Amino acid sequence: MAEPEILFERLGHAGLVTLNRPSALNALSHGMIKALAGALEEWKYDPAIRLVIVRAKGRAFCAGGDIRAVYEAGRGAPDQTAFFHDEYRLNAAIKAYPKSYVALVDGYIMGGGAGIAVHGSHRVFAEKAIFSMPETGIGFFPDVGSSFFLSRMPHEIGLYCGLAAARLARGDALHAGVATHAAPAAAFDAIVAELAESADVDAVLARHAEAAPAETLGPLDATISAIFATGPVESILARLDVLEGPHAEWAARTAATIRGKSPTSLRVALRQIRAARELDFDDCIRLDWRIACTILDGHDFYEGVRAVLVDKDQSPRWNPATLDAVDPGLIEGHFVAPHDGDLPLP
């Protein structure tokens, strides 16, 4: 009999969650989402549980939601929107969780994986942790409430991550605010054991914390801010194209990366992340629902998943294929409530 995809146990005063789908890089299935939501709801009212710890088996914390399953369900399938309905409500529940919520992250943390970690109170990154929001490369957008924290990163780093799908190692993740602590992966078992017996989460994490300087950010901060602060995607690309000096190679690489993404997704993500600066978290999640419902009726999501995850030819045929061909009215349609209303949140 196969093991469950997600495991739950009580350990001292802690509710311990273990993502247990290592062969799929712990990608979140719909069943995992519903099971985690149920456990969190139960533990929220249990006085014996003081905190929640989330960890994972294998070489990834969580590579995102199981987008391939959504793709295979097909355009217009009921299960398709149900996945995001339940995922986004889970993200909102984690953000509002009344108890400490500690994510122990090693390996990839992408997309939906960020949604079940970054919204919690404490995010501990180990040596091999890599954060990314890669959705514009599959014709989607940075969802799971990520616009809330992306829009609040310093120096426009969040917009850089959202458009270019930049990968941040743990020092950069600390610098940007994605991680709250750095600790060695070898200490994770000890952290779990100590948290289960202690009421002072910060003290436990401080005992195991280690320095993790930024890998690429820091010297790039002012440049990222100047390039991504204003204007449409075309203006950002134009500034990248003419950048000279020590960061010229980074600029050329970033521009080439952005040009490979879905033009529609780029326009949506730029507007979304900038709008999120003025929104609270729940409104960011509601906006995600609006955008997702529209994108799931379009072309680029299915083409992006086909090219990256199914056929793996890495050659998506976007429609429209260029930024200047994207109809502004099409973008506007992503930001209005669907016919059956906004996402209801608990």
Topology:
Layout: E1 6-11, E2 14-19, H1 30-44, E3 51-56, E4 60-62, H2 67-73, H3 78-95, E5 100-105, E6 108-110, H4 112-115, E7 122-125, E8 130-132, H5 146-150, H6 157-164, E9 168-169, H7 170-176, E10 181-182, H8 188-197, H9 201-208, H10 221-228, H11 233-242, H12 248-259, H13 263-276, H14 281-295, H15 300-310, H16 328-332
Parallel strand pairs: 2-3, 3-5, 4-6, 5-7, 6-8, 7-10
Antiparallel strand pairs: 1-2, 8-9
Helix pairs in contact: 1-3, 2-3, 3-14, 6-13, 11-12
Give an account of the 3D structure.
- The chain has 346 residues and is of the alpha/beta class.
- It has helices spanning 30-44, 67-73, 78-95, 112-115, 146-150, 157-164, 170-176, 188-197, 201-208, 221-228, 233-242, 248-259, 263-276, 281-295, 300-310, 328-332, and strands spanning 6-11, 14-19, 51-56, 60-62, 100-105, 108-110, 122-125, 130-132, 168-169, 181-182.
- It has one domain: 2-enoyl-CoA Hydratase, Chain A, domain 1 (Alpha-Beta Complex), CATH 3.90.226.
- The chain is built from 16 helices and 10 strands.
- α3 (78-95) runs antiparallel to α14 and α6 (157-164) runs antiparallel to α13.
- The longest helix has 18 residues, at 78-95.
- The chain is globular and about 60 Å long.
- Its EC number is 3.1.2.4.
- InterPro entries: ClpP/crotonase-like_dom_sf, ECH_dom, HIBYL-CoA-H.
